[in-house]
Amino acid sequence: MRTLPRRSGPSAKTAAAAVVLFLLAGCGLLPGTTDAPPSSSPEVIGGVDEQLMPYYGQSVSWESCEGRFECADIEVPVDYADPDGESIKIAAIRSTTDGDSLGSILLNPGGPGGSGYDTVRGSLEQMTTEELRGSYDIVGFDPRGVKRSAPVTCLTDAERDAAREVQYDLDSDAGIAEAMEDSAELAEKCAAKTGEVLGHVDTASAAKDMDIIRAVVGDAKLNYLGFSYGTFLGATYADLFPERVGRMVLDGALDPSLTNEQVTLGQAKAFEGAIRSYAESCLASADCPLSGTVDQAVGQIQDLIRSVEANPLTAQDGRLVTVGTFVSGFIVPLYNDVNWPLLTRALDGAFDGDPTDMLYLADLGAERQADGDYTSNSTAAFTAINCLDYPMESDLAGMKENAAALEEASPTLGRYLAYGGTTCESWPAEPVRTPAPVDAAGADPILVIGTTGDPATPYEWAVSMTEQLESASLLTYEAQGHTAYGRGDSCVQNAVDSYFIEGTMPDEGTVC
């Protein structure tokens, strides 16, 4: 039986070279600020700029939705430098406790581009424990630019399918130039269809939205559970509002000090390690399509991927599977070792010339249904947010140098992670952030979790984030896969629950 991979990290950027046309969809601005009287106590909204008071004090009606949840739209300014200008609405959903609540925990599943709304609605039991849900209201939201919250809009579903079949010759300057031309055309479509908000979907603006959500739910401090990119969002909030940090868990840390190129290089190394771990496990099973030593097995995977690059395959539904789509599918089950059997099955078919199962995995990652409908705009949001958060290397010589470093770090995937700078070179909004360490001086204790075999957010990033944040402690999880909490390990779950419910941090240096 096929299971859905746990996938929340920043590696939607994988195969950027082969999939420079990031696949996009969504809506535009939602109007109007509210002049409703404040619904929160002075303690909850204290110290807020007067121009933002209509947002912090807005009256929000939580209504029953999705069967057993409550939903609300929360209004925020498009541009925090111009609070009297246009506004958008952030879609939020929450589960509530049956008895007394300790407050709310805001949850972000990662991305950027992941839907916290969908996570709470569809995966709450898998992502959190019964003890946590019984103690707190769990609030999910779609960050600005994502799905229900003024989503980034660029391509139709049919155009997204077509874009995923494009393959560029990145060994030639002409192929790189073609990729950059197509990226420029895509950027124009995004700007035309999305409007003003496209320049304001950066992480700092989303963190400021979280402070308004905190006030709207009536909490004096923000309690927060962030996975993968959600750790970067949480750390950004802590750096902006250290005095308003409550109990914060950052699981699968993304180091805020790294450049885009350093992030990609770190992921290349980590995914190469995950591939070797998968190959070793596969060779020990009875149905593995690989053979020989681990080195030989990895070599067979590399040869397969190169063969798809040279001669794209056709799936049973008639769709063309180019190397970008193939690599995207290959990466998805590496996020969770529980899903390694799915990769084995997909590789088995691909070695026989049938990429159908690999395409199925790629469609899961792209959130495409069998009927051709895409259920989210996660890739579009990923692109838009990263183009604002990271100045990217788009000089041809610099990109070639980065490409060589990536191939050295990951002989299997590095080639397909290169030339990501082509995507943002013509983006209609300039980056608003320079990568730098965060310290959140004065914040309450923050728990950072790192998984030693994490392919998407390497363990050393958790170590680095812990060192940067003044009040952080590190919990280490010795395992394969992306993130830790909610994956069934009682040691991790007990540590996180005790922190949230009792305020007890695990001992320094705890290893699970």
TrEMBL record:
Q: Which organism is it from?
A: Crystallibacter crystallopoietes
A GO molecular-function descriptor: hydrolase activity
PANTHER family registered for this protein in UniProt: 2-SUCCINYL-6-HYDROXY-2,4-CYCLOHEXADIENE-1-CARBOXYLATE SYNTHASE, TRIPEPTIDYL AMINOPEPTIDASE
Gene3D superfamilies hit by this protein: alpha/beta hydrolase
Domain Peptidase S33 tripeptidyl aminopeptidase-like C-terminal residues, every copy = 411-512
Name the UniProt record assigns to this protein: Alpha/beta hydrolase fold
Sorted keywords for this record are:
Hydrolase, Signal
Asked if the record carries the keyword Signal, the reply is yes
Say if the entry is tagged with keyword Signal.
yes
Q: Where is the signal peptide?
A: 1-36
Which family does the record claim for this protein?
A: Belongs to the peptidase S33 family.
Among Pfam families, the record links this protein to: Abhydrolase_4
InterPro entries referenced in this protein's UniProt entry, alphabetically = AB_hydrolase_fold, Pept_S33_TAP-like_C, Serine_prot/Carboxylest_S33
